[in-house]
């Protein structure tokens, strides 16, 4: 059964230019079937044997490389296994040692831990009390500040009212003075003042 150059290249895991170069080197003449060139089974066998003589195909090289990597991983896992076993044994020994402590030593350890816990709880309670006191002081200061602001607003309003009243009083006083001046009689003149005025008018 005839095959195309692409089919042979895919089967051997090489590129089409490699197959074309071998066809030229071996003097093989492909025959045309429709719109493509094909090779006979005999020519395909020649190309395959030539590839095998040149060396392993890339596909076989990849397979061998994959197998080598798997082998290395297996060896590494086997090397790590003793280490993990040693770590497990150490952990078991520590647990067993803790379990084998005398009752008095165990009680002493528990007492030390309890004392430490009590001390920490006392420190936390003190901190909580300090925080509570500071919060109360802050609240008192905020209330005092609000009272001062309200007092300042009240004083400003009072000053505005007083200024308005003062302005009104000033206007009223000025008006009253003008009215008094209008009501007053003109000053009396002496006879010589009247005579001088008459002469001036003449």
Show the helix and strand layout.
Elements (H helix, E strand, L loop, with lengths): L2 E2 H8 L3 H11 L4 E3 L2 E4 L1 H14 L3 H42 L3 H81 L7 H11 L1
Helix pairs in contact: 1-2
Question: Short summary of the structure?
Answer:
Keywords: Coiled coil. This protein is 83% helix and 4% strand.
Description:
- The chain is mainly α.
- The chain has a domain at 3-54: Multidrug-efflux Transporter Regulator, Chain: A, Domain 2 (Orthogonal Bundle).
- 83% of the residues lie in helices and 4% in strands.
- The protein is built from 6 helices and 3 strands.
- It has helices spanning 5-12, 16-26, 41-54, 58-99, 103-183, 191-201; strands at 3-4, 31-33, 36-39.
- The protein has a 3-stranded antiparallel sheet with strand order 1-3-2.
- The termini are far apart.
- The relative contact order is 0.04.
- Residues 56-61 have low confidence and may be disordered.
- Residues 189-202 have a biased composition (Basic residues).
- Residues 57-97 have a biased composition (Low complexity).
- This is DNA binding domain-containing protein, excisionase family.
- Residues 177-188 have a biased composition (Basic and acidic residues).
- Residues 50-100, 177-202 are annotated as: Disordered.
First-last Cα distance: 159 Å
Q: Largest sheet, if any?
A: 3 strands, antiparallel
The CATH architecture classification of the domain at 3-54 is: Orthogonal Bundle
Number of helices: 6
Flag low-confidence runs. Answer: 56-61
DSSP strand (E) fraction?
under 5%
Q: What is the helix/strand order?
A: EHHEEHHHH
Q: Might you state the CATH topology name of the domain at 3-54?
A: Multidrug-efflux Transporter Regulator, Chain: A, Domain 2
Shape: elongated
Helix-strand makeup class: mainly alpha
Query: What is the mean pLDDT?
Result: 76
Helical residue percent? over 70%
CATH class of the domain at 3-54: Mainly Alpha
Number of strands: 3
Q: Specify Rg, calculated over alpha carbons.
A: 59 Å
Strand order of the largest sheet: 1-3-2
Organism: Ruminococcus albus
Keywords: Coiled coil
Protein name: DNA binding domain-containing protein, excisionase family
